[in-house]
Amino acid sequence: MKFGIGAAAKRTEDRALTTGKGHYTSDVLPANGLRAVMVRSPVAHATFTISDEAIGDVEAMDGVHKVFTYRDVAHLGPIPCGFFVKNPDGETATVPDFTILQENTVRYVGDAIAMVVADTQMQARDAAEALMVDYDEKPAVVDVAEAVKPGAPQLYDQYKNNTDFDYIVGDEDEIADVFKKAEHVVTLDLINSRVVTNYMEIRSAIGEIDRKGRYVLTTGSQGVHSLRTTLSKSIFKEPPENFHIITPDVGGGFGTRFAIYREYPLVLQAAKILGRPVIWIADRTEHFLADYQGRDHVSHAEMALDGRGTILGIKVDTLANLGATVAGPGILVPALGSHMLPGCYHIPAIYSRVRGIFTNTVTISAYRGAGRPEAAYLIERLIDKAARDIGMKPETIRQRNFIKPSQMPYTTLMDRTYDSGDFAGHMKKAMEIADWKGFSARHRAARKNGKLRGLSMATYIEACSGGAAETAQVRLERDGSVTIIIGSQHNGQGHRTAFGQIAAEHLGVSLEQINLVQGDTDRVETGTGTGGSRSVPVGGASLNIAAGRLAETLRQRAGDMLEAAAGDIELEDGVARIVGTDREVSLADVAAAAIDAGAGGTLSEKDAWTPPHYTFPNGTHAVEVEIDPDTGHIDIVNYVVVDDFGMTLNPTLLLGQVHGGVAQGLGQAMLEKTYYDPDSGQLLTASFQDYCMPRAEDFPDIHFETRNIPCKTNALGMKGAGEAGTIGATPAVINAVVDALHRHNGLTHIDMPMTPESVWRAVNA
């Protein structure tokens, strides 16, 4: 099929998106909309007061309609936490209320205390800056390791040592016995640094009240239905039918657009009170100050091995920075993410402890991979260090401890059942492509040129594409075009093309004849949204079933029109044709005949396929680097990825997903980090002048190929690919740099980000 499953079709959505014809939230602003600006705390920890006089002075300014403070939204529920865990005493961990506006205490720079609404953006900004707020500053703590020490500033009275939860898997006494019997014990302390999401499109929101009296929210999101549920059930406590949520084009999500933000209920409440649409549009600095961020773990890890390098057990103690509050999947990321600590390896004993810690920083939430990159980084760095400590090659220790295909399905001690995979197979393939055997000669040549050379890898496995069903509907229209209605949400991944290919496979139409409807609770009945690489593996599986049923209906109707059996009808190029003849009827005529006969409903099918379990994409990233010892500059001279994604829907889209994921992983490994002043709690990296985002010149050419083994728990055999590049990239490039440093001066670890300065210092250590 020219446009069907497996075809390297070009993205049909790109022409509009790259020529300024996309429709993002800021492109659909109502003409009579008022403008809102947030008032955010300039200090990291303080109690505060805003007098009635101060509010009155601002509301008297030109163009200002109202200043919203806590008392205006006190009746609204807090932003909910979407996941909870049990502490060692068996009690479910609680979280503090994440109120829509702070009442009298701020806990990070950027904390929201008020919102000003005015006729214009400039008037609202001037008014927000004029609002007098009295702050009584308190000591702040921003580092997660410092936050748990005795005497550290406390964010909440009820959370001792700033600890929200203590999540343990495994038996501490059992793991202690394993380590006593070990011939080798390897230890590693590492930091998984905090990063800012920095999607291209800054967040914005439009709040309106429609003619039916419903709240209407337009905003970029990763799923309109989850927003509606949160707004109706948790915040406004009104029926879901009172809310209409719209998401147009979205310029990037990466997990942090999945949860709800304060500004969304605020603009709705303001629109209700003021009787006009209210528009809020952030700027980039506000994004740095207030949008949920990612990662920020500090871990101590140990591995026990026998004399042959066989892993006997691991124990890990992680401090996960939650920021000052918990929202959405904030607990899920470190807790469930830890369940992927075994990686690709048979590990017979595990003890994992994860503590969620409050600090005077922005809330941490899901960021591309959401816990799985953190787990993969830890186990892959630990494996490489173990190999060096006991005198083995990194590939040998991996080979020796890999879970074998014959052991599948394999259930880890962290309760994850891998259905399929050949980890040794894709590692061997990646090593062949990377020319492992020829490295010694390249290393000698580099030394002659005064450079340091390193070669290493990371193997990874992740859990994704699970959760609830995703309903997909496919409909043949009177003009012969096809409409797909589905509850996932595109954030730039190419959904129109991907879902279009599945429909085209069955219905025989071109991608240009297929329209995709997403992001509108009035037009799409249900939806789980985009996250965890589930859009195509789950939504596509539902669509595949629905499109197959619709194709059978069309063959039957076309057969009746052509006086032929349904089994003799093929659907191709927008027509239904008797196989081997030129007798055909257009799909438009089939649709028109059915609609005119009053049977239009039969030309629409829908399905809701529910995944029985997670899927487990896996692969190997092999990286070779060259370092200039005089400057600390890292040159990635070879980058190889061999992945097992189960099956490939579109190799071009897949390549784009892997490239994008690798870019984000390398960005964190080499350039990106969020810095807060340890004394004042001020964000020191609040703009692109201070926060180093990677550019095209920072990335290497990437050799990518698949070594797919169909997934046994997915209806399409897919495993998901959206986050895989990020998961494999970070440990792979750091392992390669450590290899170069170890060959030079015996160094066995370097933390992220590996900036030229930090590498130069490591070279000269």
Descriptive notes:
With 765 residues, this protein is α+β, with helices and mostly antiparallel strands. Among the domains are: 151 residues, Aldehyde Oxidoreductase, domain 4; 204 residues, Aldehyde Oxidoreductase, domain 4. Helices cover 30% and strands 23% of the residues. The strands form 7 sheets. The protein has a 7-stranded mixed sheet, sandwiched between helices. The chain is globular and about 80 Å long. The mean pLDDT is 97.
Which helices and strands occur, and which strands form pairs?
Blueprint (H helix, E strand, L loop, with lengths): L13 H5 L15 E7 L5 E4 L2 H8 L4 E5 L1 H4 L31 E2 L5 E7 L2 H10 L3 E4 L6 H4 L15 E7 L2 H9 L3 E12 L8 E6 L5 E5 L4 H12 L7 E4 L16 H12 L3 E4 L2 H7 L3 E12 L5 E13 L8 H6 L12 E9 L13 H19 L3 H8 L8 E2 L5 E2 L4 H11 L5 H10 L3 E10 L8 E7 L5 E5 L8 H13 L6 E4 L17 H28 L6 E4 L2 E4 L5 E3 H10 L7 E6 L8 E10 L6 E11 L6 H20 L32 E4 L17 H22 L10 H8 L2
Parallel strand pairs: 1-12, 10-11, 14-15, 20-21, 27-28
Antiparallel strand pairs: 1-5, 2-4, 2-6, 3-5, 7-15, 8-13, 9-10, 9-12, 13-14, 16-17, 18-26, 19-20, 19-25, 22-23, 23-24, 26-27
Helix pairs in contact: 11-12, 11-19, 15-16, 18-19
